[in-house]
Amino acid sequence: AATGSVTVVGLGPMGRAMAAALLDRGYAVTVWNRTASRADDLVARGAVLAPSPADAVAANEVVILSLTDYVAVDAALEPAAQVLSGKVLVNLTSATPEEARAGARRAVERGAVQLTGGVTSPPSGIGQPDAATFYSGPREAFDRHRPVLETLTGRVEHQGEDPGLAALSYQLGMVMFWTSMLSFWQAVALARANGLTAADILPQATDTADSLAQFFAFYTERIDAGVHDGDVDRLAMGVASAEHVLRTHTEAGVDTSLPAAVVGLFRRGMEAGRAEDSFSSLVELLARPGG
Ligand code: NDP
What we know:
This protein is an alpha/beta fold. It folds into 2 domains: 5-161, 3-Layer(aba) Sandwich (Rossmann fold); 194-287, N-(1-d-carboxylethyl)-l-norvaline Dehydrogenase, domain 2 (Orthogonal Bundle). 53% of the residues lie in helices and 12% in strands. It has 12 helices and 8 strands. It has helices at residues 13-24, 40-44, 53-59, 70-77, 97-109, 139-144, 146-152, 164-193, 198-224, 235-252, 257-271, 282-287; strands at 5-9, 28-32, 48-49, 62-65, 88-91, 113-119, 132-136, 155-158. An 8-stranded mixed sheet has the order 3-2-1-4-5-6-7-8, with helices on both faces. α1 links the parallel β1 (5-9) and β2 (28-32). It is elongated, with a radius of gyration of 23 Å. Bound molecules: NADPH dihydro-nicotinamide-adenine-dinucleotide phosphate. Residues 10-15, 33-35, 38, 66-68, 72, 75-76, 92-94, 119, 122-123 line the site of NADPH dihydro-nicotinamide-adenine-dinucleotide phosphate. Keywords: Oxidoreductase. Belongs to the HIBADH-related family.
């Protein structure tokens, strides 16, 4: 069993799973949450519920922050400003890269350091060997507290000193996660309007999702080389296909926001003179919307 002690601030599903994983490994855990009752199960297992954020922060050098956003982080840390000196704030709260950098600057102003983290697994993955977290910020703090970090997720990766890097990696994952999951909800809605269930289309949806990695790999080399040749696909073909998708939703009486947005992007590519280029040329349009 570990001999260390750690503070966890924020007991949503993630913070609760983290505190539980630390208790499982033998850490002494102090917790604080705005709604104190969320600590009940953890206290029953031996965690100490601090009466205030300042008491929670003062209790340990390592303070894990798992809050909804940085507004909540500021709300929790403000009353603890006097006891932040010397602390390592492991901030696993979702944020933009700029918010993470500003948070790290505020920590330094108070004599603390921030390790920004982006956890890529849901609460069920916390404490598991294959779950992963991106970190950035002071390497020295990462190395020194690596055993604690590896208790939260078995895989950890330090990406660099810039506290914004881990936030960027997290958001790169999330833009794909939200749009991909929405694509599944969209297909389920279309299926349902046609008398099919989610379970009916799961095998096909899984095949489609599995096929995406090979498309990413194929287009990556060409995109980085600035090559958008229309040798395997043309935007003119893509726009016709996207319009079939859109009209299938219209026929079924299903919401068209998402498929209409796709058609809109394809049409803008056409207007930019890309009809004979690959639909990968939309990357250029997305990266510089003003042209
Ligand atoms: P929740 O939003 O469910 O809970 C976060 C905690 O923030 C709660 O304890 C809540 O307190 C607290 N909080 C919110 N606003 C304030 C405030 N103004 N002052 C003080 N405390 C506040 O988040 P999760 O536990 O689900 O996730 C935590 C972080 O991890 C988020 O940034 C999320 O994006 C990220 N994440 C979540 C994943 C998931 O699957 N859930 C996966 C990967 C990352 P109270 O209990 O009093 O409401």
